[in-house]
Records
---
Amino acid sequence: MELQKISSKGRRNTEETAELVNRRINLLTLHLNPVQDNPVQELELLRCAGKMKAINVSTETLSEYMRGKHRDIQEEVFAYFNSRPELQTPIEISKDEHRELCMKQLVGLVREGGIRPFRYVVDDPAKYFAIAEAVGSVDMSLGIKMGVQYSLWGGSVINLGTKKHRDKYFDGIDNVDYPGCFAMTELHHGSNVQGLQTVATFDPLTDEFIIDTPNDGAIKWWIGNAAVHGKFATVFARLMLPTHDTKGVTDMGVHAFIVPIRDMKTHKTLPGVEIHDCGHKVGLNGVDNGALRFRSVRIPRDNLLNRFGDVSRDGRYTSSLPTISKRFAATLGELVGGRVGLAYSSVGVLKIAVVIATRYSLLRQQFGPPKEPEVSILDYQSQQHKLMPMLASTYAFHFATLHLVEKYSEMKKSHDEELIGDVHTLSAGLKAYITSYTAKSLSTCREACGGHGYAAVNRFGSLRNDHDIFQTFEGDNTVLLQQVAGLLLKQYREKFQGGTLTVTWNYLRQSMNSYLAQPNPVTARWESEDHLRNPNFQLDAFRYRTSRLLQSVAIRLQKHSKTLGGFGAWNRCLNHLLTLAESHIESFILEKFIEAVKNCPDENSRAALKLVCDLYALDRIWNDIGTYRNVDYVAPNKAKAIHKLADYLCFQVKNIARELVDAFDLPDYVTRAPIGVQTPSEAYTQYTQNVGF
């Protein structure tokens, strides 16, 4: 009897194996000999995914709402490079050639194209960032080189200097006669700017500052524009004043100085200045990064950028700010525009990648039901889950960074202290969150395009390599998120001490009160589509999570501080703190996306944006569903409903994906059509042109 059972079981296993093998052979046969005559059909599985009213999206109307009032200046940038194909960066180019091309691109855009970004750095930052996004989409190296010239070098002169500096340097910076550098980072000090070691000692006999690099660790490192093109550098150094006591000098903290590094006529390195090339990098090789060392380089006293602190002829120091820490904070506060620009530009990079991957996925066909045509790979649920939440995030980030730019522009005009603090926190958080997300997404987009995504012509490799450093410069992302967490904890303490919360944080008062109460057992079980797509539910869920994380990390820090001290407690809770910061930024992003949906004047565009916004919100909630389940904020059946609806929204967004990516309105030479989706002759022509046949 036992032998009969075993024999019967063996036959069933053999039959099942044979069935699987035959099915696989049939699939491969259909792949090698596809049916070509019938139109492409969607997967049957997705045809029955529910009913929703079709949305007729006007790409032009949606694009007009998305790109806003600075669309014209971006079109001017695209038109200039479209008219000058010789200035478009080729696929294969050496480091030295790329550097020279980048300089030609910048000079040509400014002098021939008539676009003067520097004029908008202070007066109209939103316009400047719009130009930067367009320029960066042409070549990211060009975008960074422009940022070094105008936002960093030029911005430091304008924001940290006074009228005499603006009068002397503005025109030369504007027309690129004065190419310059921003020399802050040192070999041993990047994020810890207060630890910089370069010194600027005042000599009252000659009325000069003497710039010195005291050791190898103080060499200025990774300085853009330094290796080849820069003639000036804004050098951040410790201002040392002579005293008549045993110390000999007094350290007044980090200040900024204008230091000429090359001769204006011969371009030779000036005496006492040593310049070294940082060489070939992972990406951004159109930017000439170099290292600077100073050996007793003398500069006039007027070269001190003296907005926040000045030295008189007799060596007396004066400042409107009473302490080194306040002067340091004011100095860095004026440089926050770099982070704003990086967050904004990172969204631009994400747009390019999502456009390429989505268009490819709509056109590329692989496999399908037996004896039927192959289907678009975007009809597969797995491909939708890779790309549609990413497309939704791109829209969310777009509106969030637009708001950040508006806040930054308002801050530059009003100099309101509360607004300055708000912008500092938002720029740190959004820069860290968005650049990290974009870096991961670039790899996902490459993988989503299969082997064809690996071709250099399809841009994923260069985009990934060029963008990677966005996570590090203008503030390491991990450090920036800790700043956000620290400010959240500060606001938390003030809330319980009865103080007022600033605008960005005021949701914490109500949300913290909600957290301290138990989750509502009724709403925890609501699972209707109307409820789950209600923006109030979505935003409450995001804010609840942030408040819960804030409350719990505050308790943990207090507990560990007793045994480990402040530094040790912070380090023990570091991952918790980073999660808190990310949660707060996600809440802010969703809030701005919801506002953008409500403010959209066109009904069809508003419906499309609502669909995308719902996908963004529910996908984020589902990704962290464990947090909500652990405290019964979401009951099991509601969690399943969220997952099911997020799947369905992915499918619905897929149905309007072409219109959504077309609304970014990027030129063809920026989002080159991936090889593998055109006709064979078109693909062959494009491929052979790009590999040099």
---
Amino acid sequence: MEPERKRSGSTLKKGRKRRLIPSKVVGAAEATRSHWDLEEKQQPIAKKARLSTVLFAENCEVTHGQLCELLKYAVLGKSSFPKPSWCQLFHQNHLKNVVVFILQGLSQLHFYKFYLEFGFLRKAFKHKFRMPPPSSDFLADIIGLQKKQIIGNLPKAMEGSLPFASSKVSINLQKDPIIQKYGFKKVGLTRCLLTKEEMKTYHFPLQGFLDCENFVPTKCNGSVTDNSPLFGLDCEMCLTSKGRELTRISLVAEGGGCVMDELVKPDNKIVDYLTSFSGITKKILNPVTTKLKDVQRRLKILLPPDAVLVGHSLDLDLRALKMIHPYVIDTSLLYVREQGRRFKLKFLAKAILGKDIQCPDRLGHDATEDARTTLELARYFLKYGPKKIAELNLEALFSYQESQEPRNTAEGVQRLNTSVLECLDSVGQKLLFLTQEADASALSSSKNCQTIKCLSNKEVLEQARVEIPLFPFSIVQFSFEPFSPNLTQEMNKRIKIKWTEMSTVYAGPFNKNCNLSALKRLFKSFGPVQLMTLVLETHQVQRPVTELTLDCDTLVNELEQDSENRGTIYLSGVSETFKEHLLQHCSIFLGLEAMILPKDLKSGKQKGYCFLRFKTFGSAQRALNILTGKDWKLRGRHALTPRHLHAWLRGLARESRLPGVRVIPPSSEQEAWQMLNVDHPKIAAWHWGRKIEKLYHNLCPGTLCLILLPGTKSTHGSLSGLGLMGIKDEEESTIPQTCVCESAHHLPGVIS
């Protein structure tokens, strides 16, 4: 199958047309919100603001735009803005102030390199999350300032239809990611197909994979050529007790006609119709009798052997269909951006095709319209080629389009692209920005921002003590000199080795004839096993002892005391029915706030372990005793790895080394350890952690506080950022935590 995907750059010969299928009418990451609304309605008026127990972030990463969502909501509340998609801020009107501390030059790598030294930060802030590497102006991104990028001589026609960029605009096409991937010449259809490796990378369902055992192949195994027919596909989903399930499918042929448009009744109980995205309501779906198996059967009949499916984030659609198709074009990847980011379909439709889709005055998305749009985008790419697309300068168009939105009006304040500054201005307040003289940001020269520039971090600290109480919203930025690229790479390698060695256990002695399968089953009962090697010389159970693991016991103990882990237990050996079983006996697990059921990224299936979060450490300990007892027979302990850390470590390539080999920075790099204005980074981490602790204790109760380590970005590579978040004194809230489920299938706080 794979050899037929020839990567030739050839295009269709003149006069030769791709085969079209006759048009005949035959009939993307949503947020889990329903339980939040239920919880807020059931509780009495609270005296204190608080944050939701669990952050609902995709792969535990929060984008800069999502951070902006929270900050704007914190200022104006739900009367002006929708609730953030990744967390819930309850009783926003009882929030006193907002303070954001930015540690410029630091990243998630730095935090876990000096984890023991950042004692206050890890213990005081219950919520932690990853952030992508920063852009050129991190502050502007999280505040929501429109980028005033100089685009060149943009034509007036761009105000309406955007696909006619001026040829006078100076663009370095060589650096455009589309040119870097496809080159300058026009390409054929087969060049635009995702390879099998790309499909694996982007989690498409594939034949032979364990997570796709119950998936139905489309039986499209013909030879694909540049003349093969294209079909646009889009699906809408709802949230059920088993996860996301299909509620609507639209299939559009290359001629533009819809050949399939069906509503689908999910097999499991619906807990959220996701109407704002899907447009589907209970009333619409009630009379529907079509099931997923009916759709699968019809698709197998409709699609010819060499059909190519086109969609936007098509992996999600195929997983909703539970079908495997080998030939796909994904427009979110076809119009490639830097650093793995993707343009939204709505933007591409406007920028490339000059058409408006997903209009705000319409309830939900139109699946047929979206499917037809992806098809048109693929055809445009094939017709005009990569060079034409690169000349449009999509990044510049994106900035330009944002700048055209209405601003400084009562209506504009309520629009999603409004900045935090405009939100504050609408209620007669100003933002305080404390930073060093050398730091440049669009924020410092913005209207409605009181900027105080200092000569050093020490002066920023002194000014913060005085000024923060005078402003309802403050941003305090400390700037630190980053490590050199070589030392950063070395530090990254040491962190990988350290966590690998901490996750390694030596056990023995074992007989040469021992049953390895039984041994592996035994170890797997404690949790997932990545690798097992038989060592005959070891006479005990222990972790390896190297210079990187000398503080292992201390680190494990401190991880257990981390505020995000305290009150959370890890359980291994849980079955697919564990959730239902737990809900039936929830009365004996007092203080249960959330159940976290990790799923395999590729298969979507529930893994054999879970996390339970309780309101207090004592409740967690009592539950652990019950669940590991004779009645439940599970294995477990107090949790060690928060979700964001687990996701980060999973993304790191495994490192190994020979026992006794030391990793020492070259002598030329020793000067790089002069960081944070002190002689040693460990001392510096402890020093600045204490300084921020004193500032934090001076904040008034009810202050939303964020500590942001933005990450770093350079020509040598990028490091992801880390965010820590909490409301001062929210743990002292007297609000009762609701643990009663709405139905036997849904507990507020259960996520996967």
---
Amino acid sequence: MLNSTGELEFSNEEDPEIISQLTSLALSDGKSSAGAPEKTGYPDSVYVMAANIFQGIRIEKSAQKVLIKYGNEPLRSFSESEDQSFQRLSYELAFSALKYQDILETILIDSCIFPSTTIPDHLSSLIIVMLYDFQDRKFQTRVLSDNEESISEVQEVENLLNSFKIKLAAALARCRIKHDALSIYHILPETVRKQELRASTLPLYAWINTCKISPEEVYNNLKRRGYNKVKSVLHIDDKVFAVDQHCYDVLIFPSHLKNDLINIDLFKDYKLIFQDKSRSLAVHSVKALLNMDDDILMVNTGSWYTVAHMSILTNNNTSKVFVCGVQSQAKDPDLKTLFTKMGCKNIEILRETFINIESKDHRLQKIKVILLLPRCSGLGVSNPVEFILNEHEDTEFLKDHSQGGISVDKLHILAQQQYEQLTHAMKFTKAQAVVYCTCSVCPEENEAVVKKALEFQDLGNKVQPYRLSPPVLPLCSLKEIQLSTDKFFRMEPSEITNGCFLSVLTRERDPSETVSVKDVLARAAAKGLLDGIELGKSSKREKKKKKSKTSLTKAATADNGIQMKIAEFLNRETKASANLSETVTKPPLPQKNTAQVGDSSQTRKHKLAPHPAVPTFMKNTCPSRPRERQTHFMRPRPEDRMVALKPIEIVLPPVFMPFSSPQGIRSWMPTQHLYCHWVAPKALVPTCLPTPSLSRKGEKPKDDTRSSLLRPPRRWL
């Protein structure tokens, strides 16, 4: 029991008018209470849980400055305190008491509660958290529910505070006057006040579990519940939601809808999951770097929801998600149950810490991307309580945020740990990319760590160096483009999002590690993706390719030999044709006609290009021409293929030559039309091939082929 010499003294001296005047001077915040619901206090289990949290994160002072002693024994907790709603209330109460720890201790000393009462040390944390709630309720009596189970320690502390109600209100008023502040809220550092202001408007982010539901189904479900889809949820008090611009599967809700959302089936059935946007940016960056069969290694994930999100995004691939750092086997059943409910099937948990994992571990030979989420100061987070609950960060995270900053020594320790983890990630020879993401805005934890790791990276044999790559996320505003000019992705803390830093390090694949088609098929068959199709021996085409590589010189020599034989054959056929044409007797022709024919053949040479396989007219008049034109038979064929010679049939129309002598006509013209069929070079070749007469110069030739074949030959006069 609490023993106080002043408890009876002040228990009967409560003056409602005095208390009202004092509490009006001791407003707990700078906001107007008009329209706000009146606070009635918390259940006893919330006070106990908040006291235990405060006990672990309180600011310890030197022996000379110690005003109140805190014990080391935690209070007995209750099963209902494990509920998520009770956890959130307890963390919020403990964090608020931590921010005002100095002020609350001063009020307890000034009101003579310490050291006039004999209070056990293990109850000091409970007194602090209950005093904060007492002054926040304007020192009004707590309303208890009928079915609530009371806790003896909470009842004793509450009776003590009620007995010192007037003195506590007076001490609080003097503290406000001393700091010349409208309320104790204005006594806080400016950085903390700005952080609280951002936290009050910070929207809620939730990603869609596409393994269980599609985005369209989520939209329709929300619309049936009265939610409207908008482009921005900022400064909107209605039931609305929006789709994030960076991550297609992330929805945004106004902060005041939290209590309504957590009770709908979408969140109860793990179809929508609350999580900070920085984690969604990290997993989407990894997804953009993956191929179909690449594995991922996640380091310092904090929240298992981040692991689940990565698994959901790679559900259609054959990738595995390795998570390191889970040392307690007691967590296995809970994790397996959680992943089963969320539909995750490709997660494998490693027991070792990341630093102790060898880069040549046989289990990680297919790791291509490493996601590194190192522990950081978190100075970019506006609502640390929500971040703690969603990311399962250490409660030390709250201590750093309660004062609006972090000591230089602790910042250097964190930066060194981040550098060691990043350099260790770069030692994995099979990895091709590292995604480094923090929720801090301190350059010492971000740019400095990445640049130092790139500068001093250890290059092994046949390993390409890492280089800084541009962001793989879309840049949706001019400010984001300006912040990403040096290839880093940054988001500053604002009323719509927490601060975030993201860097992507990539390197080229080792040329010696190129994967053949045969390897890909073998890997797919090993995973049962080919539906029982057996991979036989190498095909004939592959054998021919291998054989051609080894005998490239021989093939070229044989090809040249074949071409030489073709050329010799054509030369022999040309000589035989020329000798046969010389044995045929021809009557003497007049010079005029010869000249005309020569002119005609010259005109033919310029207007009509002769086919190389057809002999030209007037071979005998120009003995040198047949030799020159027969050279066209030696036309080289492409070396990469052999074309088989096939017989062809060419039908030419009759030709009427303008000879003046009838004898010449009879000797040169047959009585019937002459049609030459070109089949193949033979021993006997016709001495002349009738060709169509040429039109006059400047006239277009008429298409008389069809008519000339049907009408009889014209008699020359």
---
Amino acid sequence: MASPQGTIEVTKSNFVEKSNDFIKHLPNASFIAIDEEMTGISLPPNEVTPMSKEDSPAHRYSALKRVPERYSIIQLGISLFEQKSVTETAERDAASFIVRRYKFTMFPGADPNLSREITMHPSAMHFLRENNMSFDTWVQDGIPFCTKFNAQKVVERFLERHQRRIKAAPIMSPNNSQRLVLSRDADKQFHARCITRLREWLDAPLPTPAPTQEGVSLLLPRCNSFLRRSLYEAIQRDYPYLVVETENEQIRVWRLTDDERANRNQRLLEEDFNKYLTESVGVYRIFLALTKACRGEPIKNDLENAILAENAAVATADFVPTAESPTRKIPLVVHNGLMDLLFLMSHFHSPILPGDWVECKDLIHSYFPIIYDTKVLATQYCAESSSRSHLQGVYEDTLESYPEWQLKNSDEESGQQAHDAAFDAYMTGVSFCGLTYTIHNQCEVLPTSSNARFKLWEVSEKLEYPRWLFGRNKLYFHLSPFTIDLETPCDPLGRRISALSTFRVSNINRGITTRDILDCVRGLTDSNQRAIHVDLFWVNDTVFLVGARITSLQQSEDQSEEIFKESGKLLRCALEGRFCNGETIELFVPPARPEKTNSIWNLWGLLGSNDSTLSERPAKRRRTE
């Protein structure tokens, strides 16, 4: 893996330049990995109402959505993984990449109509401080952001200002019936003195040469807004060829030749372009570019063109849409990324997320048609899953398998560690590459042609590789037996188990351990002498779920149905032979979707945005002896 520039730190002071660099390289990416750091990932204890671990994502969503609606993104890390061509890398290294890492530091803008309040959770702030977060940079040089709706309004005003400027239209064009009439003698005298001074200035010869390339100007005395409007009206009525502008509660009048007017308009255009990008649109520019690349869409209209253009001239040029042709949709890669995606929606689509879970999934899927979650790949799609599924653990395991992917520079020793959004995005991308190769090798899936190298990221849309092999558009749901499926309304059980063979066992003795349960189902085989493997999930001290698990990753979901049915019958018989003293054994049925409620939950870590291990859960009675 080659990362030629290290992490590219993007702040407000360099946003236009660095965002242009990002947009330039984005279409060449094989896949894109993201990560975020937020001001909070859980709600205060007094707003938390615990909910059952058996609840489905739809059941928990009404509470879950309030976290991204309340807190803010501090850092958005994006890594672009561009696979080298065959001529650039050795054949043996089938995943040699140029990686560009970007870290966008985000802070709400000054305009209250575009920004949102900042709410900070103390534990999140302590965590970020311990991981070298620069709060000074965040506050002083953070890039603003806005929603799609607000960005469109800002761009429309920018384009309107440009059109007025090139047409030399008056800044204020009041209707004749609304013109101000001065009544006070002092106001009339002030107005007369200013107009007299203006006429004397116009009658005087122009200095040679001109003091600037933008002509000469006259600054009239300071006055209130009422008098300034009166002067505006008089000057624009009697001297329409002059340019009038306000400067620190004073009126400045410009006398310009055609060339000077063109130079001035060009300077003002560039300043206006940079200002509206850095102070208003901000990181929405990155979100728009990212989503269009993930959707394989060209620029559609003049508003999108004005946001994504590399400079002011391109932004204001007549936009001609290109003929739409099928474009490769670039996969987005996350690690335990549900919260990352929800935060993106609340920051760039709407501050209030949809009230319905299915609508929310459809919204995410509309922006990002192809998503891979490395937490899902590591826990559910690798035949020999590592006991470590948190991001850094998966990354380290990947480097053990592919030591040639270790960074060749000293980035990892210079502070670019875990919990920096850009480096976490980098680790996510490296882990994704390693996991896809591992799954490919264990499934013995052939590439598209005999001389082609396996590249999941180039065939995702064509679906040469079925989604059940690599978990396309499935997201990890923390501390839950469910996996989120963005392509279907219902979310299935995860961990390669099925509702056809998953049982809920309740009212068990508190002395029962995990080992006791596994011992009673050990050695089960089906009619084809295949061993029946199980997955165990504790709900609480007296309830657990256990389901037969498909271990052969070459079995499709349709092919697995009969296996699940047979395994379920054998598993139930084994459970009934062991738990026959008042315990209840029943086929697990996910709870019905709840009515809308304002209750809040946050079982330990359930709102976490990234990693979790068993050690991060609340202390509880040991499940094993």
